[in-house]
Design goal:
CATH superfamily: Beta-grasp domain
Strand order of the largest sheet: 2-1-5-3-4-7-6
CATH architecture: Roll
Number of domains: 1
Bound molecules: FE2/S2 (inorganic) cluster
Radius of gyration: 17 Å
CATH class: Alpha Beta
Strand content: 15-25%
CATH topology: Ubiquitin-like (UB roll)
Largest sheet: 7 strands, mixed
Distance between the termini: 11 Å
Shape: globular
Number of helices: 7
Order of helices and strands: EEHEEEHHHHHEEH
Structural class: alpha+beta
Helix content: 25-40%
């Protein structure tokens, strides 16, 4: 069945989003904070410099689903057709235990005022998925788009070095819940790809995208169907 024209579809955490009306200038950050009331992603500079608004965006690339960190303040909602958007709210249920990356930030005192912290957690989260045992240079590269004015980076880097000691990446919510393949105990294989740039430039994805090579089945099925219906228009 062909998809109606002028319909924008993507997945936000575990919610299917279908938009038939959209302002061309609406940013993902405004959509998250004002429309969806997901206020974990913060607005600092609103021009792609500080990283407080960092989220993950997954896109199909052939048979792979590639997640990259994105500055939501300079990403228009109209760019998100056929993607999976993952925000800080996806990491831990309300009132539930902290995600390993969040717990490492707490235990290593990686946050003071906390305004930058959601963006830093999302950058570390993207890195953790791509490289569960990152080196200091890899952590520094992943954090190049995230500014923190009060904590200082040494505790944050220590948290990045420790995050894998809290849980195995295969237990992550993206693997275990959202993306589980029936009867598959290890639904994801994740691997880093080489960086085309050592720094995250304004609006560009992080240097270490995370590629899922064989799943996530529900997400990939949905995104593939969006891509197929789009290309058949
Ligand atoms: S709010 Fe500063 S990069 Fe988005
Ligand atoms: S903890 Fe305050 S800016 Fe980072």
């Amino acid at each position: 069945m062909s998809q109606p024209p002028n319909e924008l579809r993507f997945i936000l955490n575990d919610e299917d989003i279908v938009l038939t009306e959209l302002k061309a200038t609406e940013t993902l950050l405004d959509y998250l904070r004002l429309t969806k009331r997901l206020r974990g992603s913060k607005e600092g500079c609103a021009e792609g410099d500080c990283g407080a608004c960092t989220v993950l965006v997954g896109r199909m690339s052939g048979d792979e689903l590639v997640y990259e960190t994105v500055n939501a303040c300079i990403c228009f909602v109209g760019m998100l057709h056929g993607t999976h958007v993952v925000t800080i709210e996806h990491l831990s249920p309300l009132g539930g235990p902290l995600h390993p990356v969040q717990q490492a930030m707490v235990d290593y005192h990686g946050s003071q005022c906390g305004f930058c912290t959601p963006g830093i957690v999302m950058s570390l989260y993207g890195l953790w998925l791509a490289e569960p045992n990152p080196s200091v240079p890899q952590i520094e590269t992943a954090l190049q788009g995230n500014l923190c004015r009060c904590t200082g980076y040494a505790p944050i880097i220590k948290a990045g070095l420790a995050m894998s000691s809290y849980a195995d990446v295969s237990a992550d919510a993206l693997n275990a819940a959202c993306c589980r393949m029936p009867n598959s105990p290890m639904p994801f294989s994740a691997r880093p790809i080489s960086a085309s740039s050592s720094a995250r430039s304004k609006g560009a994805p992080s240097a270490v995208p995370w590629i899922s090579t064989n799943l996530p089945e529900p997400v990939m099925t949905k995104l593939a169907s969006v891509s197929a219906s789009t290309s058949s228009r």
